[in-house]
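Project standup — Tuesday

K.O.: blocked on the structure for the chain from last sprint. Re-posting the sequence here as requested.
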Amino acid sequence: MRQRLQRSRLLEIGIAVTFFVVLVYVISMSVRVGQGVSRTLSSPEHVVRLQILNGCGVNGLASRLADGLADYADSEIEIQVVDTDNFDIVPVNQTFVLSRIEDLTAAGLLANRLGLPTEDIGYRPLEHNYRQVSATIVLGEDWETAGALKTYIREK
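H.V.: unblocked you, prediction finished:
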């Protein structure tokens, strides 16, 4: 009987110690969560889904610019290249930007980042815009001297 009583007390003490350890753990976790660092991710104000069209006839130029602009983002603008192709009318003398949405703000920011004139940005929606393109750059024969454009064009 005495052994049973001793075992019973040891079991009660074990349960009490386990309860105390769990309680301390829960309290410490709630303090850590309550005092944890909250981090706010800053996302750019505008996201440009960009189409790059080659209007100068230099093979692979649109793709090389797409590589240079890949993952470009700052506090105002993020550039996501969604399409590269050739422009229907070749040659194009001067590089220009088209907005594919009515709000020209994002296209203006894009042109500004690339050193292209912002006053000539036109609005021309795409008929079947399944890639949700918001701006198009048409590369002209002046691509080597047009603003800061050449700095974004990767070598082969």
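K.O.: great, moving the ticket to review. The chain has a mean pLDDT of 87. The first strand starts at residue 46 and ends at 54.
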